[in-house]
Specification:
Elements (H helix, E strand, L loop, with lengths): L9 E4 L9 H16 L3 E6 L9 H13 L9 E2 L4 H13 L3 E4 L3 H13 L23 H9 L5 E4 L1 H6 L6 E5 L6 E5 L9 E3 L7 H11 L4 E5 L5 H11 L6 E5 L19 H6 L4 H7 L3
Parallel strand pairs: 1-2, 2-3, 9-10
Antiparallel strand pairs: 4-5, 5-8, 6-7
Helix pairs in contact: 7-8
Length: 295
């Protein structure tokens, strides 16, 4: 799609309420808003709160306050992932029925021990794009009868994508559409989801994962263009695969540079990066923040 042609785009800003927004979030939200305005499109807000253990009402309230302070307005109602677990469970069950995923009963400790044992034997330990060791496939060949019995007994488990089986289902090469935020010009690049191995698509505590819920939500909300940070660029390969397997429409993507500290480290909630609320408390204005970020 080129700027000014085709149907009006639909974008989304989708923060997780497990901390306070910082300048990196502000940049992403403002860039989404600029593109939507430039192309006469819509920008939706989505609260990605599947992590029930870390989600806090005050963080949700803080997100809304920060975005309002920045001058951003969104249509109502705002989609909250925690209200749509049944949608994700249906997608999970469809993949299970198709033999595309399998239950994994391994704990993190068991996986770490297996990976360490393989490394000690001198075997290669492949890693995913985030640097984590790929799942060694311990439960991939557990029989269906055994897996069902263990689940019926209440054994904790995740659901993992059978990557080999998934790739065999592809009738044509998997690609990703990328677009320029300046003129909307599209390019197509090859996707390589295999580098994620048998990724988790549903967690122990909820019937989904970030990857599964995101592709389901983008389809339900009619998202045509996804604008997010470069730290999620590699995950798009996995998202493209899930979209193909679930027969969902695939948006076009742009992954913008991250806002970093003077030392070159990316801003992160987990690192205690200064929040927008902190800036506001110091008397920094929204206009100053927008100008600092190039808006």
């Amino acid at each position: 799609m080129s700027e000014g042609t085709g149907p009006a785009p639909v974008l989304r800003f989708a923060p997780s309420p497990n901390g306070h927004l910082h300048l990196g979030h502000a940049y992403s939200a403002l860039l989404n808003a600029r593109i939507a305005e430039r192309w006469g499109g819509r920008l939706l807000l989505r609260i990605e709160d599947i992590d029930l253990g870390r989600t806090r009402p005050e963080f949700v309230a803080g997100i809304l306050a920060d975005l309002d302070w920045l001058g951003l307005r969104f249509p109502s109602p705002v989609r909250r992932q925690s209200e749509h677990f049944s949608d994700y469970a249906a997608a999970r069950d469809a993949m299970a029925a198709g033999g595309l995923i399998y239950p994994c009963f391994c704990s993190r400790g068991q996986i770490a021990a297996e990976v360490a044992a393989r490394a000690a034997r001198g075997e290669a330990v492949p890693r995913d794009p985030d640097g984590a060791p790929l799942y060694p496939g311990t439960c991939r060949h557990v029989s269906a009868a055994d897996a069902t019995a263990r689940r019926e007994q209440g054994a904790p488990h995740t659901w993992r994508l059978d990557m080999a089986a998934a790739l065999q289902r592809l009738a044509e090469p998997l690609v990703i559409r990328r677009f320029s935020p300046d003129d909307g010009v599209l390019e197509t690049v090859s996707a390589d989801p295999a580098r994620w191995g048998d990724a988790v698509v549903a967690r122990r505590d909820v019937p989904t994962s970030y990857h599964l819920s995101v592709v389901c939500d983008d389809a339900v909300q009619g998202i045509t263009h996804v604008v997010r940070g470069q730290d999620l660029e590699a995950a798009t390969d996995l998202h493209a695969l899930l979209q193909r397997l679930l027969r969902l429409p695939a948006p076009a993507y742009h992954h913008h540079p991250l806002i970093r500290t003077e030392d070159g480290e990316k801003l992160a909630k987990s690192k205690g990066s200064e929040s927008l609320a902190d800036l506001r408390a110091r008397g920094i204005t929204a206009e100053h923040v927008r100008a600092r970020l190039g808006f």
